[in-house]
Amino acid sequence: MFTSLDVVKVGIAQLDVATQKQTIRTSGLGSCVGVVIYDEVKQVAGLVHVMLPDSSLSRGDQLTVAKFADTGVPALIDAMKLKGANAVKLKAKIAGGAQMFKFTSNQDSMRIGPRNVEAVKNQLRKFGIPIVSEDTGGNSGRTIEFNPQTSKLQIRTVNQGVKDI
Amino acid sequence: MDIQQNITSFHLDVLKEIGNIGAAHAATALSTLLNTKIDMHVPQVEMVSFNDMMERVGGAETFVTGIYLRIEGDVAGGMFFIMPVEQANQLIRKLIHEKSFDFAQSPSELGLSAMQEMGNILSGSYLSALSDFTKLKLYPTPPALASDMFGAIISIGLIEVSQISDYVIVIDTSIIEHEENAKEEVSGHFFLIPDPNSFSTIFTSLGVG
């Protein structure tokens, strides 16, 4: 049986939640990290496209919560509860955090990928959400799509094809 | 100065002129290198959301070859030269006379270094023109090369600005190679993304602060 599902698209520094009969996708992750949190029983899945590790880096007037790991993960959990997810049953899959360019420079912005991954993991640990699988680091861009019915996260790259984690 | 709240159409025109001068010099350099005619489009200078930025080269997933360098000095920012990968292939095939060269499939060292060198020449001529025009000191890092999804590549240029805003001011100039009888044209985008606190320096240097 194959039915086509609606795709919920999540942009950079955004978050959203998919329910049954939907999948949720974000495209072109480089140093950013895509965090999928899901409730297998209720088949509710949220995704946040994190750009930066910590909101203390913000020097602007307004805070876009989905941009940062430390604000994006809690905001995603809240958004999922509103869609009926059970907070104690949550699991996570994460992907991204690549280093797209090989520089000799030790500039902070070049190491942003690993820092994003680390910050996301800290947040998930804080909320007691286990990471079931991850595809992080490396130097490839990734497009990811999660299906709440199968709990599979599909990862697409330009050089290594497609795989599920 | 909070540039994003106070920017006027006059400021945008000044930035367009910067794109014009930089890209015109780069186009001349490329034209000499390839011995063909290179045209350029009128620069586009806009304040766009990060997600609209992704649409500039056909979406976050578009497979591109990109050269990236970081500028330090009086003005800081990121600079990219981006081409759809198939067009970058054509360009390098012509440059090194290697018909099967492909960025997507184990590209030869020769082709990669040719692209790297082209990035050097193009960004170098863009930035030296910009430096002459503004009398500002610009110190670019050596350009780095990657072939991947546009979103994954351009996002490194958004890291600095993302600490302040959800919008980016981008100076976007494209150059096109026209060849007689060619079915497709080869085109590339220059994206100059100054860090937010560099705008006042640029404007002051041109007497429009």
Automatic annotation (TrEMBL), chain A:
Gene3D superfamilies: 3.30.1330.200. Keywords: Chemotaxis, Hydrolase. It catalyses: L-glutaminyl-[protein] + H2O = L-glutamyl-[protein] + NH4(+). The keyword NAD does not apply. It is an enzyme of class 3 (hydrolase). InterPro entries: CheD-like_sf (IPR038592), Chemorcpt_Glu_NH3ase_CheD (IPR005659), Cytotoxic_necrot_fac-like_cat (IPR011324). The keyword Acyltransferase does not apply. GO terms for biological process: chemotaxis. It comes from the Bacteria. Its EC number is 3.5.1.44. CDD domains: CheD. One of its GO terms (molecular function) is protein-glutamine glutaminase activity. Belongs to the CheD family. Probably deamidates glutamine residues to glutamate on methyl-accepting chemotaxis receptors (MCPs), playing an important role in chemotaxis. HAMAP family: CheD. This is Probable chemoreceptor glutamine deamidase CheD. The lineage of its organism: Bacteria, Bacillati, Bacillota, Bacilli, Bacillales.
From TrEMBL, chain B:
Signal peptide: none annotated. The keyword Hydrolase applies. Gene3D superfamilies: CheC-like. It holds the Pfam family CheC. GO terms for molecular function: hydrolase activity. Transmembrane segments: none annotated. Keywords: Chemotaxis, Hydrolase. This is Chemotaxis protein CheY. It comes from Candidatus Kurthia intestinigallinarum.
